[in-house]
# Entry
Amino acid sequence: KQYSYDGKYYSIQSVEYDDKENCHMVFVSIYKSTDDELICELEPCRSMDYWGMVWESQTYNIWFQSADIGLLCYCMSDDVWTYDPNVVRPDDIISKYEDIIPEFSNHQPRHTYQQDENGYWVAVDTIPSETNSTSSSIDSF
# Structure
């Protein structure tokens, strides 16, 4: 378990095979600490490229580091975390890999999962496809 800065939320990571991606993916389930209610699930990257995740120290943002797509930040709004390609990385999000990994371009997030009206978890695209353009400004974490 990894807790948010104030302990209000916690995350559990798992690795599962994803037929759509045709590989093993990292799944992150986010729960409310008060009642262990599952409120969001993320699929940020392939497991073979996953280097880790960290909660920001003063927000509910979660940062993921992946060898193939670089640094991804998922920001929370109304108990849903979604990929935000424009968030500014705070100074306390650091990495020992920063000096050896070049900046990444053409990064694409995976999926965010939300409960539908029947209570089923469904994949939701994190950003529209037209915004998945090449970027030269993404940092590695």
